[in-house]
Amino acid sequence: xxxSMRNHLRRFRKSQDGGTLTLEFMILTPMLIYAFFFGIELxxxxxxxxxxxxxxxxxxxxxxxxTGMQFSHDDLKRAICINAGGITDCDDNLVLEMxxxxxxxxxxxxxxxxxxxQSAPVNPQRGWSLGKQHEVMxxxxxxxxxxxxxxxxxxxxxLKDGDGNAMMASMSTFVQEPR
Length: 179
What we know:
The chain is an alpha+beta fold. 45% of the residues lie in helices and 18% in strands. The chain is built from 5 helices and 4 strands; from the N terminus they run H-H-H-H-E-E-E-H-E. The chain has a 4-stranded mixed sheet. The longest helix has 47 residues. It starts with a helix and ends with a strand.
């Protein structure tokens, strides 16, 4: 039994058949694994972005419809986290910016979202203004998260801060109704 196994292994080792298949396998396998990690990270990123967009839109709808109620920064942040559902550590990793918009001279918010660097001191309320009656408000939510596969695929390509956290942002507008 052992002798026949040795003979089979010896023939397998000396055989030249399949050499080109092995080379193709060695070249294509890393590319397939990279594409696999990229696809998983892209799916998770898209789901997080959709949850953040949903939470922000539902919250701004509540603000629009609940006229006469005064919402604070913490109220909006809590509502976005509840409505987003499934975003991990939302209270700690979500930063809100809200500013009034002049429709005749629209400039918007600054291009780069200021998500705080978790390795630096936190300044949670950047550009926060509750606005006046009948004023158009622009609300931007920025969420920091740890990529699942930071070593490969999309996780490697995302811009990261000092702690290795990537960011995503979502914007919404609403009008401050009369109280």
